[in-house]
């Protein structure tokens, strides 16, 4: 089969490797859709990319072979792929939180072959059932950023009485906008790029704020009768945004932070102070990836509340043009790019 490797910094190449064969507890999935993620670009730009594994971690497909002892999935099943691989036996793994595995935590396209290939070998535990009415592209999203986004957002327990400010309208922020809108909250999106603000409106923002043109804290207060948003979802990873989130949040507000290493994180004078959390009795949450079981709540939102994650796809390419797709994605001027197999 064919797989895409990053042999050195900014280099990509297809290699032919043997088709995977499932051992006990393992499953081979024929990849039907994969999507490009910011971390693929981190690998591409890395001084030392892992040149020995197939790249890509957002994928979905159809089970084509199962090893002995596999009882949860069958040949022909449609599956989304949860991208973190845990030991399956430690307390965190058994609770569904494989991202916090303490024994043998690995990630696809890090220590294991990824999904930019015709087939991928996974553990049974990494197969999330994908109903017929949910596309393979959306399945690929759920296994990574759309799951990360839901897991963060659910901590804020949104309903129709809430106004949530979403900092950062990249994929994690945009999925959050779609979920928050579906849950009935009033949504204010914040970003500095016109295309993202426009996509924010498409995905469900009631108002948007351009941080390059407006005073974010002032504007958020104006939009909430001076109180500030009672919920804040920080997906940008910018220290400036974290600071603004703390300053803007309403008394007794709740803030969930999921972004890290954002582009403006290096500005030392922007480090947020937690005094606002004391003075306003704020509640702060952190969130990292998602517990596997959140998959089912996301499917419910997609099917029952018409959350359209495909609206953030701007380009699709066939697998043999994936290098061109990655170069385009690297310009930073696209939404999600999906690779079809
Ligand atoms: Zn990803
Ligand atoms: Zn574990």
Description:
With 341 residues, the protein is of the alpha/beta class. The protein folds into 2 domains: 2-143 and 290-340, Medium-chain alcohol dehydrogenases, catalytic domain (Quinone Oxidoreductase, Chain A, domain 1, Alpha-Beta Complex); 148-286, NAD(P)-binding Rossmann-like Domain (Rossmann fold), CATH 3.40.50.720. Helices cover 27% and strands 24% of the residues. The protein contains 11 helices and 17 strands. The strands form 4 sheets. Strands 3, 4, 5, 8, 9, 16 and 17 form a 7-stranded mixed β-sheet that branches. Strands 12-11-10-13-14-15 form a 6-stranded parallel β-sheet, with helices on both faces. A two-stranded antiparallel ribbon has the order 1-2. Helix 6 (194-203) links the parallel strand 11 and strand 12. The longest helix is centred in the middle third of the chain and has 12 residues, at 171-182. The structure holds zinc ion (2 copies). Residues 37, 39, 57-58, 144-145 line the site of one zinc ion (ZN). The site of one zinc ion has 8 residues, from helix 2.
